Amino acid sequence: MPQTVYVLNGPNLNLLGLREPEIYGHATLADVERLCVETAARFGLVADCRHSNHEGELIDFIHDAHATKAVGIILNAGGYSHTSVALHDALVAVRIPTVEVHVSNIHARESFRQHSFTAKAAFASLCGFGIDGYRLAISGLAAKIGASAQA
Ligand code: CA2
User: Fold this and answer.
1) Which of 5, 48, 84, 93 has its CB surrounded by the most CB atoms within 10 Å?
2) Does residue 84 have its Cβ closer than 6 Å to ligand 1?
3) Is 60 exposed, middle or buried (0-12, 13-18, 19+ CB in 10 A)?
4) Is the per-residue pLDDT at 146 higher than 90?
């Protein structure tokens, strides 16, 4: 059975590469997902990449991760990171090692972005690396769960 990592992207991340490139860069969500699939494969992992603009659907994805015995979650919950106790609670409930990713450096932006509910349920957080943050997050998750790079 392959070990699966869920890569979950939240609201507005489908606009990556299409708007505000000065903040979010030029890469698209399809580029992010390709990067995640390739990076996961280097560690013998399978990336199951999902996007939703809806809080409840993101919660359903987290429950799916538990139901399918996913070994990790990479989460960019977008604006819900800063507002969603429900997403926090879903992550705590499933107890799957999670890394939070933000494309932009949320700490150098508006004050309302500087708190993350979801980060409190993650074992690590990365922000400000652009889409490379997803690659770093999968690599860090692989180390955490003992998945080594494939020859
Ligand atoms: O930096 C990140 O990855 C964010 O999670 C992106 C969220 C924002 O609400 C968070 O504070 C930080 C927003 C999604 C991006 O919205 C876009 C709008 C236009 C173009 C591209 C993305």
Assistant:
1) 5
2) no
3) middle
4) yes
